Hints:
The protein is mostly beta strands. Helices cover 7% and strands 43% of the residues. A hairpin with a 4-residue loop joins strand 4 and strand 5.
Amino acid sequence: MSDLAVFATLLLISTAEASNSRSHACGSAHAASPPRITSSAPAPAPAPALAPAPALSAESPKNDPAPDAAMIFDVTMYGAVGDGKTENGMIIEHGVSTSKVYSAFLAAWDDACNHPGKSTLLVPNGTFFIGPISFIGPCQNNQSPKVEIRGTLKAPSSLKAFPTPSWIMFRQLQSLILTGETTTNTSLFDAQGEESWRHADCRHKLKCQFPTSIILVNVTNGNISNITLKNGKGFHMGIINSDNVTVHGVNITAPWNSPNTDGVHIGYSTNIHITSSTIGVGDDCVSIGPGSINITVFNTKCGPGHGISVGSLGKYSAEKDVVGVRVKNCTINGTQNGVRIKTWPGSPASKASSFWFEDIVMINVSNPIIIDQEYCPWSTCTSSKPSLVKLSDIHFTNIRGTFNTKSAVALMCSSSVPCEDIQLLNINLTHTMASSLQGGGHLSVKGALHGLEINGSSF
């Protein structure tokens, strides 16, 4: 994660929400809501709560069949138009003496959220042009409607259309299911970020914010599956202050040179699991920020991008610790980094511990294994003091493949707070130009390190 200003803004939204009234909460009144569809279709029950250490599987998470049917709330029945050009954020109706303005998507959401039984918010086939929008709970019986995307949602291309740091937000919801069409692969969120990427300098100088495509804030027991996110202006997906969320079978794509387009960013959340997904972007495929506990990335393909990263950590004061990150059975291809832990110099004191990076294939990666406690993008650091983030209990196991730089393993630890208990087991990495670089020894160590174990390895 590089865009720390955006992350901080999103975090402020989350922590302030308890004192804010919901602008589009369930039960909000409409002058004359459009008719709802009364047909029904079977829907899965809410995703079950995840155990602290679930068994890893490449199979899609299963939901028990629902004993009753769900009411379908189709956005087109509320005035939404899927022609790829009509603005669906606001619909204007002219009456005898007045005009009424309402959001077709939010009108459908409010009715679905208010429904006393199971409900589904449906976006059918078509291309729906829509500006920033928030789907906010809590809903009836404290259960979120299922959100089913069969078509394409397309964002405005201009940053001027985004007064907030997100495009689509789901907030304060229980048992959210956001799912796409599994057979036609048409469930697309296109953020149209190409124009915004030209303003990267504005972001680096912290003068503007680039919206996250989809963000979950205060969501519990969520299941996100079978959707595609494309060309984010900033992060593609953010998960903040949430618990028990599974992201499965998601495809995220942006050009390798699109700035700060992290695939999935996680912060201040617990029990988050990313499985069987494909992520290729211009920044971290997955970035795991402060306050993250029990995070799993399993059976996921990463590349292009900057790899799978913990951090950056230590940019702000009073950051919460990171505990328990497991990255397993992943393939990282053509990235700037492989698996990485990064902290800022001069950071306040915090801790990050219990990391397991195992069964990973590296293909032509620049820095396959890296700990960087001198992380300083764009040369913006204001301190030359060492990082005070304490890193410990770090395991790299069964990692193999190829790399293209001087060091296969780089351990740049703090000179003030030593890294502790790092294990390299069965690491087998070969330089892409092995014939011209004879022998091994591609290990770089800097700073203070207590307890380094290397066994069964060649690099």
